[in-house]
Known about the structure:
mainly alpha
Amino acid sequence: MLPSLSRVYLLLGLCGGYVLVMLFNPAHHALRDGFRCIGRFKRVWVIFVVLGLAYVLFQFATFTPIQTPADLDLSQIMSVPSWQWPTLGEVWRETPLPALEGVAGIFDNATTTYPLSVVAAVLLTLNWRGLHGALLRALRKRYPFGSYFIYLILLLSVLATLFKPIVFWQLPHWGGVAPAAGLLQTSATVDAVAFIFEYLFGVFIQVYLISVCLAWVKGVSFEEGELGRFAMRRFSYVLKWAGVVVLVSMLIVRMPLLLAYFMQIPNVLDYLPLERAVMSTLIIAFCSVQISLVLHNETLGAAIRAHRRFIAANVHCFGWFLFLCGTHFFLIIACDAVARGAISNRLGVLFLWKCLFVSFRGLITGWLLASWVCLFRQRESARVVQESRIQY
């Protein structure tokens, strides 16, 4: 009886402390406005949910060993009282790195875009809503001499994205025709090149959603197609910073994984936790560069200088915002780790839980992204009068 009461009091204390922190932290106005924003424009979080669910379906269909229909029996939920629930102390080691990557995603690319990146590649090729044309015009205006090289890289990554599902789908059937090592090297190369478009597509989604939040902050209406083209033009300004992130990521994360298929490199296929942590830390260290480029269409050097001024002037408030982002991601990822440990091999329940988890994570991610836009606009008011428009 007493241990149960102690746990209840502990839970009530934690909930009470959470409410007090959320109400009285220096960033609470931005967090409140973020909720209002996603209430007005639900796409800010729905897009993250849709992309997350698509990836869950892909993972489940590709990697889950379903033997019989009984594996998907949802009546397994009825046995919840008999599940073996791991403690937080047993799973906490799985939590810090994904939580750190979740926080970094708010300032860079907050979602996994595969397999819907394949659909995006097709739509971009077909010039859906004029986005392909808008991208070409923006590249020529922003990068007069480098636009064709950038476009060539983008085109190659689009082709790799289109071929990626074909390669992975046919890989088992090609086993008797070509050497296994050669097939693995080919698939790894296609995956590495496709990563460029998948990442850039995620950045474009981020730019689009920041534009939606900006429209809410300014109280302006917009036409859907025009907002997409506006986001594409602003994306051309973000492209230089995105290129830096892609280059660093390719060098310290993707390239070692690719080279491991061609030569012996020890411990490379362990998902490189240190390198992933370095990438996330780098993105957080330059957190306002992306949003500054989106809102002010300035040069990369000017955005980095503005970032330095922004952090120096708002270190206390931004530190609280960063802490709250990390806390939310840590809590939801810890819950996921505990739930997965308890669910074990109950595939039907696991699929249902992953869908619920991805939906809730998408809601949290959309809220924190909208809150970040609100916080940035509130704290950089001195620069708002200097904001210029893209002229085409």
